[in-house]
Design brief:
Blueprint (H helix, E strand, L loop, with lengths): L12 H10 L8 H14 L10 E7 L2 E7 L3 E4 L3 E3 L5 H5 L4 E2 L14 E8 L3 H15 L5 H6 L4 H5 L1 H8 L16 E3 L4 H9 L11 E11 L2 E9 L3 H9 L8 H14 L4 E4 L10 E2 L8 H5 L10 E4 L18 E4 L12 E3 L11 H4 L2 H21 L8 H6 L16 H24 L17
Parallel strand pairs: 4-14
Antiparallel strand pairs: 1-2, 2-3, 5-11, 6-9, 6-10, 7-8, 8-9, 12-13
Helix pairs in contact: 1-13
The protein binds flavin-adenine dinucleotide (FAD).
Flavin-adenine dinucleotide binds next to helix 13.
């Protein structure tokens, strides 16, 4: 039964296509092959991309967006606009109101940590594991004066040697090595490398007391290159906006840290460290008045009603590095639709990505690309219906949109505090619904129930 309702919801069909298109291995996406895959797909579909549009303004007629003005490409008109730029620049220019940071009041200054991805060449995963072993043993050796000095920057470990031992050693008493669940990735489990980096470079580990932290890494194996997602920078909503406005370019002060990281890896045997041109921006201000917010609270309740759901998504609300420390950790399994992308102010505009309407904290899960691609699939259907019926995007019936989604999948979002009995009930209900929808499919009966208050039922 658990197979039917796994703890992590299955990916949408479009996300699976995205993985194929980008040539993702088991986990790792190589930016070069992803870029090649996208170019070929756009070419096949005969879609041209106008790069770096450099927005200069917009033309509005009442609550409709008619055209955007671009410095490089002139005036570009359309019936529907989907703003999937990270900071929703078009929506800002169209006068849409935004919720700052991660929510109201104190949270309006908060943002999620920035990352800077780097690639290490000339080092294999096994060499890194040997390095982890070596550093762990040094940190546990009280006679190793230098390694004990590194620990001065980690007061929690200095005070509690047992905790240090627990974090550095596995159950068998061996140094914890990075974990390789797939052939193209590894996850560090030990703080050893982090302690050595901050110790050797005399850099206080952040992100509260200091602006930087070399965290335990997620490593993508891209042929002979190891791509590290581990360097974090303290961030707030103001700095996040600055970085978005500069299209993700690293801030000048970050280069000093990057040079230190390069030095650390080279001095430990790497041949080359390459820095990505853009920072990893996790967060953005969100549209303040979406048709229906996909808030953290709604996620915890199981998400949007099942009749309106495009799919189900599970993700831990992840506010990496945010100092909003009172936010309890949660991993909701929720149904999602697309109506959180529709700002009430403009009838033919959607905002897709971290800037959609997550009412602040919902962004912790809402920022994830797997979700946004799946939302995009529904939004594309809603856009076609809106054009065909000459309706505002928000007036399209979400149930009709759902009826056009690929068959074979029943959403199963559930309240986060479900008891075993609730879960059992949901599992039975899920089985029943799945049988019902298959029956409909094979009997040829129309699945759609149109709500006449929302949509005139012509053409159905
Ligand atoms: C190392 C790493 C690991 C990650 N791991 C995961 C993961 O495991 N799972 C996951 O779901 N997410 C992951 N992410 C996050 C994920 O990659 C991002 O959330 C995702 O790429 C964001 O996609 P987006 O389309 O919303 O924004 P972007 O990728 O930023 O796309 C916005 C696009 O808009 C274009 N644009 C902006 N302004 C203009 C303009 N004026 N004119 C023309 N074009 C413009 C930009 O050029 C860009 O192509 C990871 C990210 C990194 C860096």
């Amino acid at each position: 039964m658990w197979d039917l309702l796994p703890p992590f919801a299955p990916s949408s069909q479009l996300y699976e296509k995205f993985l194929q298109l980008t040539g993702a291995g088991q986990i790792a996406v190589n930016p070069r092959s992803a870029s090649r895959g996208f170019k070929q797909a756009l070419h096949r579909a005969n879609i041209s991309v106008l790069r770096a549009a450099q927005l200069a303004g917009v033309s509005l007629e009442g609550n409709r967006l008619c055209a955007l003005k671009s410095r490089r490409h002139g005036e570009l008109g359309a019936d529907i606009f989907i703003d999937s730029s990270l900071g929703a620049e078009l929506a800002h220019r169209a006068g849409v109101s935004f919720l700052q940071g991660l929510g109201q009041r104190g949270l309006s200054h908060e943002s999620i940590a920035l990352g800077w991805i780097f690639e290490v060449e000339g080092m294999t995963l096994s060499q890194l594991q040997i390095l982890e072993d070596k550093i762990s043993l040094r940190l546990l050796d009280p006679k190793d004066y230098q390694a004990q000095q590194w620990l001065q920057l980690w007061p929690a470990y200095l005070k509690d040697r047992r905790r240090l031992q627990m974090d550095l050693l596995d159950d068998q008493g061996n140094p914890k090595q990075m974990y390789t669940a797939t052939h193209d990735s590894a996850d560090q489990r030990s703080p050893a490398l982090s302690i050595a980096f901050h110790g050797q470079l005399h850099r206080l580990p952040g992100l509260k007391e200091s602006p930087t932290r070399l965290d335990a890494a997620n490593i993508a194996v891209l042929g002979s290159r190891l791509s590290f997602n581990s360097l974090l920078f303290r961030n707030d909503a103001e700095q996040n906006r600055q970085v978005i406005a500069k299209h993700g370019s690293p801030l000048p002060w970050m280069w000093r840290v990057a040079n230190d990281v390069t030095h650390f890896f080279i001095s430990n045997g790497a041949k080359r460290v390459t820095w990505m041109p853009e920072l990893y921006i996790r967060s953005a201000d969100q549209i303040a008045k979406p048709s229906e917010a996909l808030s953290a609270q709604l996620m915890a309740q199981g998400g949007v009603p099942r009749q309106h759901a495009l799919g189900t998504f599970t993700y831990a609300l992840d506010f990496r590095g945010s100092s909003a420390k009172f936010i309890p950790s949660a991993k909701p399994t929720f149904n999602f639709g697309y109506r959180h992308t529709l700002p009430r102010e403009i009838s033919n505009l959607a905002v897709l990505g971290p800037s959609s309407g997550f009412a602040g904290l919902g962004e912790g899960a809402g920022r994830i690309i797997e979700l946004n691609i799946s939302v995009g699939q529904g939004l594309a259907i809603a856009s076609s219906l809106s054009l065909a019926r000459k309706l505002p995007l928000a007036a399209v019936n979400p149930q009709e949109v759902v009826s056009f989604m690929p068959a074979g999948y029943t959403p199963y979002g559930r309240p986060s505090n479900s008891t075993s009995l609730n879960l059992l009930f949901r599992q039975l209900q899920y089985l029943f619904d799945s049988c019902w929808s298959w029956l409909y499919k094979f009997s040829g009966l129309p699945r759609l129930r149109c709500d006449p208050r929302v949509l005139p039922c012509d053409g159905l």
